[in-house]
Amino acid sequence: MLKRRDFPMLGYGVGLRRQHYSHVLETRPRVDWFEVISENFMVAGGRALEVLEGVRASYPIAMHGVSLSIGSTDPLNRDYLRQLRSLARRFEPAWISDHLCWTGVGGRNLHDLIPLPYTDEALRHVVARIREVQDILERPLLIENVSSYMAFTESTMTEWEFISTIADEADCGILLDLNNIFVSAFNHRFDANEYIDAVPVERVVQYHLAGHSDHGTHLLDTHDHPICDEVWALYERAARRFGAVSAMVEWDDNIPEFAELARIADRARTSFDTATHTANRESSKKTGKPALPADHRA
Amino acid sequence: MSHLKKLESLLYRLITAPSGVAEGLAAERTLRAGGLDDIVLGDERLSAEARVDIYANMYFYRLLDALKQDFPATLAVLGDDNFHNLVTGYLLEHPPTEPSLYYCGRHLAAYLRDHPLREGAPFVADLAAVERAVVEVFHGPDAAALEPDSLRAIAPADWPALRLRLQPSAQILALDWRVSELLRAVEEHRDWTPAERGSHKILVWRRGTRVLYRELDQAEAEALAAVSRGATFAEICEVVAADGDEQDPVAAMNRMLARWLTDGLLVRG
Questions:
Q1: Which domain holds residue B45?
Q2: Does the complex come out with an ipTM higher than 0.90?
Q3: Whether the model pTM is above 0.90
Q4: Strand A219-220 vs strand A12-15: parallel, antiparallel, or unpaired?
Q5: Do residues B105 and B96 make contact, with C-beta atoms less than 8 angstroms apart?
Q6: Whose CB among A23, A54, A210, B187 lies 3.0–4.6 Å from A179's, allowing a Cys bridge?
């Protein structure tokens, strides 16, 4: 069975984005790791792959996809999976992740993360496909919860029951996007804390931290704003429950200077320390045992 | 068809309906009496239809943004409104089928060839073709450029049978309009003027990670075509000699070879 300790604790990273390629290659800034969008590097050659070679020489990476379409009822795209496997063999990421959603059907691609109904049918479908994908990729997959703007009348379980059961039955990991939980909690009126408290601890291998935009009637997962206080609070709650988990700052539009992203990654490190030390102190008060250090950089 | 497939297919049709979800819904004949409300949860903040509409908007604008990035000069020539309308029609005819947005613009130049927008800008399809080639060359396969020293080491007797090879990412396009200056002006944020008519060939290639393009004269176009066909050096020289415009084919061949090497256009055979 997959356990988080089977994966390295990468620390606190940021998403590698084109705007920062030169800065990263020229200055090798102090950041623990980079997450890269797999599809941006599934090309024959050119600058993108040259950049990734340079980045990989100095940093651990994780590969994060947007087009696996694990929930689609189309056949799995085996060409895509072969390319993904080939990229992974070349760059040796700590893990590969993609979203718990579908992105197209009938041979057409929406280039968006469309939610699934939380039904037994969808669950069985996704579990079988994740198992097949993991066989093809020759490694475990992490699935990420998406932000969603629609939910289905036919759903028979909560989102956290859906993702947790899938992870258990497919024996895959979870990339927990705390902003996505917050966005979907607002859009569908569920309790984000309940979500955090229900996800199986051993399956959470990575967090995403990101910002969103408020449209009054709904929140949109735009990755173009700072991380809001409520999402930081969810992160601290997650830190207390899950312990040391690799975290990454995701910013895709109105992208700030790299130094700002690195500062946010450092805040994630500090917030983890604060949250877990506080939890340990409270725990030691109750048990009379000394507090454990928050050793999360192993 | 499974229930899940029916649901995904319905949502796909609604999200991609060109005039929005409402019109898409009107075209659906199989929905139950409750319509979309039977399928998607709405509330007092957002109806079921409004929720699907969020995805419909994101679908279109994500692709519009991607195409604007890949075709900045086409956008500059057509203007925002025309480009928006162009993309609306284009996505109906060529909806994305590949996992990467990289592919979404691959049919745009061909789509423009028969488009009414060409009446105002007859050169725009050629312009889009070059912009697409720039994208493809940028992501094309790598190959180490041939160093001039390695050619100098070839014995004179071996030259006639020598086969040169172009960078695998290089493209040669046949165009009816001279669009390269317009494209360069847009890239350099200068004022542009409409392209003039003129059949010619343009070379798009990559030196290192930088994409370059330039017009070819007749002799060089034919010589490069011969290189692409896998002709020997002797055969390439014959092609150049056969070009009536070249007074001194040997000197012309030497000039071309020197430039190809400087351009990083040749790779090991």
A1: 1-66
A2: yes
A3: yes
A4: unpaired
A5: no
A6: A210
* Of the candidates A78, A11, A84, the residue with the CA atom closest to the CA atom of residue A42: A84
Put simply, whether B14 touches A (Cβ < 8 Å) is: no
B39 touching A (Cβ < 8 Å):
yes
Q: What are phi and psi of B178, to 5 degrees?
A: -85, 90
Q: What is the CATH code for A95-198+213-263?
A: 3.20.20.150
CB-nearest to B7 from A42, A117, A149 is: A117
> Which of A149, A218, A253 to probe the B interface (max B CBs under 10 A)?
A149
Distance CA(B66)–CA(B246), nearest Å, equals: 44
Q: Considering the domain boundaries, does residue B27 fall inside one?
A: yes
Q: If you count them, how many residues does chain B have?
A: 269
Conformation bin of residue B191: beta by default, left when phi > 0, alpha when psi is -120 to 50: beta
* Residue B140 to residue B127: CA distance in whole angstroms: 20
What are phi and psi for residue A176, nearest 5 degrees?
Answer: -90, 115
In a domain, B90, yes or no: no
Residues of A in contact with B142 (CB under 8 A): 44-46, 49-50
How far apart are alpha carbons B253 and B259 in whole angstroms?
A: 10
Asked whether residue B127 is domain-assigned, the answer is yes
Whole-number Å distance between alpha carbons of A236 and A96? 25
B51 CB within 8 Å of a chain A CB? yes
Residues of A in contact with B37 (CB under 8 A): 153
Q: What are the residue boundaries of the structural domains of chain A, listed by start?
A: 95-198+213-263
Do B151 and B218 reside in the same domain of the chain? yes
Please give the distance of CA A221 from its chain centroid, rounded to a whole number.
14
Sign of the CA dihedral running A33, A36, A38, A43? negative
CB A199 within 8 A of CB A174: yes
Residue B156: CATH number of its domain = 3.90.930.50
Chain B contact present for A39, CB below 8 A: yes
| Domain end call among B66, B95, B111 | B66
Number of domains in chain B: 2
Dig out the tokens for B64 from the structure: 């519009």
Give 3-state DSSP helix, strand, coil % of chain B, rounded to 5: 55, 15, 30
Q: Tens-of-pLDDT digits for all 298 residues of chain A?
A: 998 989 999 999 999 999 999 999 999 999 999 999 999 999 999 999 999 999 999 999 999 999 999 999 999 999 999 999 999 999 999 999 999 999 999 999 999 999 999 999 999 999 999 999 999 999 999 999 999 999 999 999 999 999 999 999 999 999 999 999 999 999 999 999 999 999 999 999 999 999 999 999 999 999 999 999 999 999 999 999 999 999 999 999 999 999 999 999 999 999 999 999 876 776 666 655 444 433 333 2
Same domain? B126 vs B259: yes
| Together in a domain, B41 and B150 | no
Task: Establish if B65 touches chain A: CB-CB under 8 angstroms.
Answer: no
**Angle, CA of B232, B235 and B239, to the nearest 5°:** 140
